[in-house]
Amino acid sequence: MNRENKKKKYEKGYYKTHPCKDSFTCKVCGRPVVSAGAGTDHRNHCPNCLSSLHVDIEPGDRESDCGGIMDPIAVWTRKNGEWAIIHRCRRCGKLSSNRIAADDNPMKLMSIAMKPLCLPPFPLERIEELTLLMGGDGTLSRK
Question: Does the model's pTM come out above 0.70?
Fold first, then answer.
């Protein structure tokens, strides 16, 4: 890559309009990450552990000085049914949403999605009592 093209690559907002085909090594699990197989032009997280780096303020701008590790903390579905991962930066706490990629680890995605159900904010032993307090009879209907 000549000097002129390299300079263009690092101009403000370059990755907003150009595909990012760069490979990298995940800072969390140490695996090599390539853009091939992602099903997108913008690979921004590890397909194995789903971690990312805090490099953007706005998607694709590469203007964040933080550089902290972004942990996957939740998943959500967009209007069209597409899944996205919510990342939280370990260093500054910023939250961001990233589309899942075609080669993301399905077991890791499901474990993140199931975490709130497995660790509710109340003791499961008291669910019948809590349901009664809400006006229900606290039992499962059997028809």
Answer: yes
